## 1
Amino acid sequence: MIYRPLGKTGMSVSIVGLGGEYLEGQDTDAVRQVMDRAIDAGVNILDIFMSEPNVRSNIGAALKGRRDKMFLQGQICSAWVEGQYTKTRDLAVCKESLEDLFVRLGTDYIDIGMIHYCDTEEDMKLLEDNGIIDYCLEMKKSGRFRSLGIGCHNSTIAKKLVETDLFDVLMFSINPAMDMIYNHYSIDGFMEKVDGLKDGGEAPAQLDVDQERAELYTLCEKKGVGITVMKVYGGGRLLSADTSPFRQAMTTSQCIQYALSRPGVASALVGVKSVTELEEALKYLKANDEEKDYSWIFNHIESYSGNACVYCSHCQPCPVEINIAAVTRLLDQARISGITPEIRQAYDALAVKASACISCGACNTRCPFGIDAMENMRQTGVLLG
Ligand code: SF4
Ligand code: SF4
């Protein structure tokens, strides 16, 4: 394993880290097996944004007796309310959910107290007004948080957050599609640059990254704010030619290499649900330069077909309890391959179907990526029921 300093926190974290989201729904043994292999491979950082009680307890059980082997990035403001994940700025609910996290993890400290993502100025104000920032600073002063971080998907807001000097760590979504395409809803400017490149033009140093995002990474590096990366594979979308905007599958090593090549980045947190998926990510450590090279993506953007869901669940909760990310993932698969028996079976197993959607629009207002989740529910209802 290779380790990098996590900004100025004093922690040295593995360049391949774990995002915990796909451990939700796995049983105790499966979580333990992933943790065993991760620790064996030298992985020492794990993000836990999940509020679902079982996954928290399973991670706690898997870490029993070896808590010191893993830096825990535990999120505050993610809560389990009426059987669903909820993002909240209600201080009392945040405190209760955080105490639950401490208990279920069996620990009295969290290495990186991570404020669940903030993507707007209004939300920044809420964090102040509702006392969440003050509470987090108290937690840091008392040592229950060893450092303080915040998650974000928006480079404009992320820069403002970093400029406050309140945070030691930034959790940010980084992959080539987001850096080059998804940060803008128009790709015209980017296409012009790439056309110029194809015509023999020389690539400017930052051709591959939106300027503001590039500035953010440099700012973090300058200020000693360590970046932990989410959405390394773009929700798995970049790993398939059918779903990647580059119309060619990237490998896990290429995605990880891309994230680790940005200034300020300490660790690429990959979401895995099994040892097999973890092994796939760990291949990066043995990959040669050719295997890590992602530069070919410049040649494959002609057929970019629009913004797409990354299955992050930030649009929850849904008043009728639709699992929007799970439904959308099946919809996307069905769009590509038709309704296979596997898709039918997986959809039938969902407790609440897309057709239960009451078109309240709440999911659309919460999606950080501008996805029309409500329309996706409508289309799924037509397609799958
Ligand atoms: S619709 Fe948006 S918030 Fe919901 S899962 Fe997809 S990308 Fe995430
Ligand atoms: S629009 Fe439909 S899917 Fe979205 S939150 Fe409302 S009921 Fe749920």
## 2
Amino acid sequence: MLLDAAVVTRCRRRVHLEHDPAAATAPRAALDATAARRIADAAAHRRCVADQLAGYHTADWAEVSPGLPAEQRCAATLALLIGRAPFVWGGLLLADPQSGRRGGVELLVRHRGGGYLPVIVVRHKVTDPGSGARTSSLAQPTLASTDPNRKVRPQSRDQLRLAHAVRLLQAAGLAARGRPTGGVIGLEADVVVWHDLDAPTWPGGRTAMAEYDARFTDRLAVARAAATEAEPLAQPSRITECRSCPWWPLCGPALRESRDVSMVLRGEDAVALRAAGLSTVDELAALDPADEPPVPMAGMPFRDAVLLARAWQRDLTLVRRNRRVTVPRADVEVDVDMESFDESGAYLWGCLLSGSDIGMPGGYRAFATWEPVPTLDEARSFAQFWVWLTDVRCRAAARGLSFAAYCYNEQAENRWMLRSAQRFAGAPGIPAVAEVQEFITCGHWVDLYGVVSAEFLCAHGKGLKTIAPAAGFSWHDPEASGENSMRWYSDAVGLGGAPPDLTQRTRLLTYNADDVHATRALRLWMSSEQVNDVPYASDL
Ligand code: SF4
């Protein structure tokens, strides 16, 4: 029984299924396009970092070919480590049958005092503005110092991966002496961030090593019980990870069949209720929502949990919280939807103008750049969007008309408006940050996600793609989703060296236009009598 680092952050039931002989032939969901793209992007990022590092350390650089069979990769890695190679990329460490560990690490760096330090390369942010992180340059990775400009962004998964590598190095007698330490190179790939894995930085004063050891011991027990067909140590429970888990075709029907309480509650609340003897949706639905909760609830108020359970029993997507649904409306209305590509930039601001005549053409218009982000051309498209929006506001005000702009889940739009104002400060048409801030807080910028949350209980989630169909809206593109739009964007601008695919630009514009039409349809429906057809929660 050999487990890699992923098990310590993976669903326990998944670890069970991956080792249960009875599940070997069970149907599994194929890797979706989004996950495949993430994997490809991560691989490209790792290669890019490797090339950068190899450039700094030409004479000291060694790579273990990923194409080799595992045994040969292990042997090649070991030979390099015994030979005291300063930098080993792509190493696969000797499996440790005694502890049940196996695995590799992107980079092994020889320490001045002997032995190796593991460094992983990840495609997410690992620091935030601030100070106090221990960092080193890629040119001199082992010369770490306290960074005056960065603080560590807590990423527990990274530290647990490093702890796994440290334990493997220790088992092979190849770990650097001293406190267990490991490095991370993040999305920006500008520094190595070093973690003291024995520092009591985890909840309850625990260390990363202690947390890792406890989790690994647990997952090993789960896997062994599964492999020997003993009493299972892990049962399914719906969590966020289920959405992208290959085992959902097995767990989903089982959870529905057993009417498991996690179908309406996720994570810790479902665990806590089960521990209190409430394991089904029906048992939860039978409680009085006005009573005190049987256990403290972390994810949602107890009343909502009971009413959601009742909605689930009746297969209702939505129920009204209030007898009368209200949504802010205005004479002049603009629905806004921004498209961004990961952390790289915001490439499209789509707007739908409707309402009273203000001497401007109504309907949809897009402010886009098709140069791959990040690009200075983003400044042009953002400035055009801002100038247009400001013009709409001014014309409405000049005519004595009320104005409102709408989006769905304002966090992304707000973040990119503020970030664009910061990044392109001083460029033509770019507003001051304070001007953007004034707009965000002016009261006329309405987050429909917040309105939906206040007005409805949603048994299947509050995403626009889930809610807008209740208002009779549907998207032209059957594959429309934020995740898929990333792939379309990649093709639309020719990331990865392929020629830009113009049909994907059209697809993105259609998708964006549909999103703003969806928010408009949603608020028109919420303002209409039809919304009263949605059952009222307290009537259930
Ligand atoms: S579908 Fe959910 S419960 Fe089942 S193994 Fe995957 S993450 Fe775990």
## 3
Amino acid sequence: MRKLLAAGLILLSLTASLASQRRTENVLLVTLDGLRWQDVFHGADNRMMNAEHGGVKDLLATRKRFTRSDKKASREVLMPFLWQVMAKQGQLFGDPDSNAKAHICNSQKFSYPGYSELICGVVDETIASNNKFYNRNVNVLEFLNSLPAYKDRVATFSGWDVHEYIVNKPRSGIFCEVAWQPITVTTSERRKRELQRMLDHLPRYWENFSWDALTFARAKEYLEVKKPRVLYVAFGETDEWAHARRYDLYLQMMQRNDAMVRELWQWLQQDPQYKGKTSLVLTVDHGRGRTQRNWTDHSAKVDGAEEIWMAVLGPDTQALGVREDVTATQAMIASTVAALLGEDFQKIVPNAAPPLPGVVR
Ligand SMILES: [Zn+2]
């Protein structure tokens, strides 16, 4: 009995010390709408480097920018932050070459079901459209916002106006600004006027979706002023340009999104609240078709659109790089975000998927 007690005490103190070693106090979650794992892991796809399949306007310039001699150089030129920082200091899932596929669990293979799966940790097959209806499922951002330590310190920015409904803004109570909504939180009044003017002057190329550059700018302003503990930023131009069959612009935005994530990360690493105490989770809502014809599309009927990828970087994540021999699902993201912060999402959503394997030390 005494032995058992001693063993129990050791276990208890071990658990306590492990918990105290956990360093993540903030999480940055970023999604890139419909960015294919093929382009992420292999670099620009030569089959679409033309006018016919890729809709490439300036072939010379696009090739010069993005075509490289081998796989490693090709992917690095597109996403230097992902490959030089996240892959070296963190973990990447979804590389079939490493026997490590990542997939969505919902059967729809489009945005609302995907975003819902990744923030709610469950599949809800009643979500079968991108219409503006409030998500009935509890999401991890909402869960965190319900805890005293995170109350009113959780925010979401998205280029797409449906995100308000996906995170269920009225019920979850989290700060959420989307698409063409007025810019409300900035580092100065002057900055607010400048950004608002830009929003007003740019063309409404998409009625319910705004440019990533502006989503980025307003999220960054909010980050600097409000210092949220959990920030979710959803970029979406990659999906828009893919649907428009503009592989050149899709690749450009892939590279620009990578630069935006780097800028956010670098800002976090010079601020005392965040430095060494923040984890980054980067992923997508769905994949796309595999061929030169259907790389533009994604839906239940498109083979391959269920294949995704994700990356995690932070003080509690071992630098394992591209993970091998492991299967990951989109539904694991919700519990991963909570677990990085030392919280248990499955406590309130028992059927939520567990965290990504081996991500939280
Ligand atoms: Zn789409």
